[in-house]
Write a structure and sequence with these properties.
2 domains, 38% helix, 8 helices, 5 strands, 5-stranded mixed sheet, 245 residues, alpha+beta
Length: 245
């Protein structure tokens, strides 16, 4: 297959077909540009697809859809995260390789700087009193944010841990270090504990997530549910509710 010998054959054949249907480019031209013969293309197209072929085709279409929805701004790390959230078991390297084969290159979006102001709201009451111990489960949860560097970029991981058992109750991955990621991790933690987290104190470093204040603790009086379900995350703290509700 010439210059594209290392590429996935199903992707190469898909690109050739897409060029014809989407841009009216003859198969002959696309085959020549990709370094494959027309006979190979027609033979490949007429073969019965395997399970691997079908899965790769579905994955390719999903990547193209996400890339289009992002306006061409999402690179492989962000698309990888969304694919995982949609239930795909795939590596970020596979996503990067498929995007390269499809010619999908994220455009750089320039962000304005200097618009973020320090929050003026007071810190929430110090329920923990700097005593990071608990006598039983579901008294105090602590949140943490970690940046994971991959070959394709940086991924942020938010976690929620029960201070008594040190058990990981919830986590969420995202491309941005923000309050939404913390809410997603809390949603999972709440689901892990059956949804009822009344009386639990949640502690996070104030300022560690944009929208949350440093050394802030928040009592969680009700159910924690994903906002997309139509229910709201409720808190007695103005700081936490303003950031996450």
């Amino acid at each position: 297959m010439g210059e594209v010998a290392a590429a996935d054959p199903s992707v190469v054949a898909g690109v050739i077909s897409d060029q014809r249907t989407g841009h009216n480019i003859p198969h002959t031209v696309s085959c020549r540009a990709l370094g494959v013969s027309e006979s190979w293309f027609y033979k490949w197209r007429s073969r019965k697809p395997t399970g691997h072929d079908l899965r790769r085709q579905q994955l390719t279409e999903e990547i193209k859809e996400i890339f289009k929805e992002s306006g061409g701004t999402y690179g492989s790390p962000k698309i990888f995260i969304l694919l995982v959230r949609r239930g795909w078991h795939v590596s970020v390297n596979t996503v990067a390789r498929l995007m390269a084969e499809l010619g999908l290159v994220a455009r750089v979006v320039k962000h304005r700087r200097g618009l973020t102001r320090q929050g003026k709201r007071p810190a929430a009451p110090d329920h923990v009193k700097r005593d990071f111990t608990a006598e039983e489960p579901d008294l105090v949860w602590v949140g943490d944010m970690t940046e994971i560097v991959t070959a394709e970029g940086k991924i942020c991981l938010a976690t929620v841990i029960d201070l008594f058992s040190r058990r990981l109750l919830g986590y969420a991955m995202g491309a941005h270090h923000d309050a939404d990621l913390v809410v997603a991790a809390l949603n999972m933690a709440g689901a892990t504990r059956g949804g009822d987290v009344r009386g639990v104190i949640f502690h996070s470093d104030r300022g560690s997530e944009p929208g949350l204040n440093r050394s802030s603790q928040h009592r969680l009086p009700g159910l924690i549910v994903d906002a997309r379900s139509g229910l709201r995350l409720v808190s007695s703290s103005r700081v936490f509710c303003g950031a996450c509700c």
